Each structure stands twice: as C-alpha cells, then as structure tokens.
Amino acid sequence: MQPNPFKLERYFSQHEFTARHLLCTSDPESMSIGELLAYEPDSIDGLRDTWLGYTEYPGAPALRRELATLYENIDADEIIVHTGAQEAIYSFMNTMLAPGDHMIVHMPGYQSHYTVAEALGVSVAPWKAREEAGWSLDPAELETLVTPATRALVMCVPHNPTGYLPSRDVFDAIVAFARKHGLWLFSDEVYRGLEHDRADRLPAACDVYERAISLGALSKTHGLAGLRLGWIATKSAQVLERMSTFKDYLTISNSAPSEYLSAIAVRHTDALIERNVSMIRANLGVLDAFFARHADRFEWHRPRAGTIGFVRLKREGAERFCAELLERTGVLLLPSTLVDHGDEHVRLGFGRRNMPDVLAIVDAYLDATVTSTAS
Questions:
Q1: Do 7-32+270-365 and 52-268 fold alike per CATH?
Q2: What keywords appear on the UniProt entry (predicted)?
Q3: Fold topology of 7-32+270-365
Q4: pTM above the 0.90 mark?
Q5: CA-derived radius of gyration, the chain
Q6: Which of 110, 115, 127, 90 lies closest to 26 in space, CA to CA?
Q7: CB–CB of 177/144 below 8 Å?
Q8: β-bridge partners, 349
Q9: Distance (Å) of CA 231 to CA 12, 26, 145, 305
C-alpha cells in the first residue's frame, strides 16, 4: 500500500524551517520543557527518574488515567496512546476498513483522512462544507452519500482548515445518522478545547456513540506538538483490539519521557487552553481589522474554534499569491491546492504570539502592490 504523497507535509518540508515568517501554522504557540515543568515544580525529579526502557503498549497507565478525565464516559483502558495523531489515523484506516468499502469524509480536509483509505482500495465520498454558509455542513446530505458499502464517516470538529464548529443540533444529527446506518464515526477532535467561546464546546463523539472513535492530540489544544503524542478513545472493544494489534507494526510503544511530560500537560489542560485561547482571541481582533481593510481582496468567514481559517482570494490564484508573497516578504501561507480544494483559498494560522507582526508585513506588501499597480 503506497498512499499518494502528503502534499501539505511535502510543502512544509520545503519551507517550514526556511521561511522567515510563518502565517499558516496549525498549532498554537508552544513552550519549552522548563515552562511545562513549571506547572509542577517538583516534576523535574520525576523526569530525572523516568525509566528509559519500553513503556506499556497502549500508553503509560498514569497518562491514560489523565486522558480519561477529558471524557465523560471513557475509562483508561478505552484509550490507546499513539506517537502523534497521524499514527492513529493510519492505524484506524488499516484496521477498520477493507478494499471495496465506502467511506464518507468531511471536506475540505486533512489529506490522511482520505488518502490512506483510497490507497487501501476504499472509495471515498466527499461531504462538502458550504462556504457560502460559513463552511457549515448539512446533515441531510448524508443520506444522499451513503451506500450499502459505506462503513465509516470521518469528520473533523472543530474543523481543519476552516475553523467551523457545528451547532449541537447538527452534531446530534450526524451521530444519529451514523447510528442509524451502523457506521464507524471517526471524529478528529484535535482542536476540541480551542472553542473561541467555551459555551460552544461539543461532547466528544466517543461519549455519545458506541461506534465512535475520538482522536485527540497534544499538538493543537495544548500547543505541545514536540511531544509527538496522540490518542484514540472509544467504547468499541473491536476497535481497541484491532488497533492495539496493528500498533505492534508501527511504533509498538511510545517515548517514556514524552509520556511523562504529557501527563503533566493533561493535568493542566485548563490552564494551557486558557493560555492558547487568550492568544487566539487577541489575534482574531487583529485579523478582523485586517480583513475589513482588505475586503476587496479577501473573503473571510471568522472561525468559531481552533487556530486556523480558510480565506478566499478575490483577485488571483492561491498558488501564485503564496509563491509571490513568500519570495518578496518571506511570509509563508498555504495554498488550497495542498488540501485538494481548488486554487482560490489560503490557510492562515492565528495561534502564535507574533501573528500581528507577521500580518503587518503582509499588510505593507498589499499596500505596496496596490501602489505599484496604480502607478
């Protein structure tokens, strides 16, 4: 099985560590190990004492107990810890789907949500977000997409790359559809917790549906991508058994220091969320003013959650705009061609402290472009 190249990651491999300014990152501002340990001043001793042998295959018991506190109806033994969310996605697709199956996927989306399945011989039906309605989803459309071969529905809430967050009624309708047809509901929830209004937070899918698999990670909500830690939570014994067995051919077990530090992070989830959401809210205010000034060039649907938005360009193609912006200013944006969604949008990230400074560079570039065109 050979999936197509992951276009977004190939793009980042070329530019992420060479571009002078990043304006498309999907993760919030991170921190040092020292800053994380400061949440528990005595934890440095535990880090020193961490045994550097193999850890338990599903994840350290102490970590899984902490992760279980993020859910209402999940126990520690209903969680499998992975080395990043990507490994968990790959494992689910390889264990719960088979050639000839059919799957419905929330689109535009994260490439591994569909490319891995397609490489396995699974046919994929896109469930398209409606840009004209703020990138919303229409649950009624699902009945037009389901077939006798449909085995799974993959959704991303809060959504990457649009920042869309369904209402509770829409969420419940999605779960009801999956239950009616006996589908696996793979729910990518790596941004859950970064709702811009806490009142909008939805339940985890695994807490409300017995065939749901909730995907979590420390990269987004906690801003700790360098720990390389993700997990799935599910009530399904079948999923737990199959994915555990498949993990024997992947990382087997995880990094012991990473699991120790991750347990600290999860214990301080509320503080880390508040840290990140406060940056996000401040940056959104700056973005609102920016897009109001440049309404003739961009169409902006303000996200309700997460650290990224999907912006329509009114005058030019995304690939050309991003290439010229990078060449002339050193600012990196992500064109929509990399998420298989035409050439009219860019992904913009607003979870970093320096976003206002980087946006000012773009602002000056746009003003200069207008001036040079006018002259």
A1: no
A2: Aminotransferase, Transferase
A3: Aspartate Aminotransferase, domain 1 (3.90.1150)
A4: yes
A5: 21
A6: 110
A7: no
A8: 308
A9: 24, 18, 29, 21
Mean of per-residue pLDDT scores for the chain: 96
Instruction: Return the sign of the alpha-carbon dihedral for residues 190, 199, 65, 264.
Output: positive
- Six-digit token string for 266: 């999860």
CA-CA distance, 81 to 157, in Å (whole number)? 20
Q: Does CATH place domain 52-268 in 1.20.1110.10?
A: no
Instruction: Name the helix (H) or strand (E) containing 310.
Output: strand 308-313
Domain ranges of the chain: 7-32+270-365, 52-268
Q: Is 211 helix (H, G, I), strand (E, B) or coil?
A: coil
- Mind listing the pLDDT tens digit for each residue in 295-349? 999 999 999 999 999 999 999 999 999 999 999 999 999 999 999 999 999 999 9
Q: How many Cα atoms occupy the beta-carbon half-sphere of 225 within 13 Å?
A: 10
Instruction: Tell me which DSSP letter residue 220 carries.
Output: S
Residues 6+ apart with CB under 8 A from 144: none
Cross-strand pairs, 173: none
- Give the separation between CA 87 and CA 249, rounded to whole angstroms: 11
- Contact between 239 and 198 (Cβ < 8 Å): no
Question: Beta strand 334-335 with 102-107: parallel, antiparallel or unpaired?
Answer: unpaired
End-to-end CA distance of the chain: 55
